[in-house]
Amino acid sequence: MSIISFSVAIILALFLKFTKLGIAIRARSQDEIGASVVGISIDKIDSIVWE
Fold this sequence. Notes:
The protein is mainly alpha-helical. The chain has 4 helices and no strands. It has one domain. The chain has helices spanning 2-18, 20-30, 32-37, 42-50. Helix 2 (20-30) packs across helix 4. The longest helix is centred in the N-terminal third of the chain and has 17 residues, at 2-18. It is elongated, with a radius of gyration of 13 Å. The N and C termini lie far apart (27 Å).
């Protein structure tokens, strides 16, 4: 069970660090205004993450 949890955590960390969507999600969570200035759609990221 712990191996599965560890694997899922590693995969999630790699996804957030190396994919365009993951980088956009991190940018949105850190600075909403800055993310929108560089062209990240805040509404689109919110709908992907929360729905």
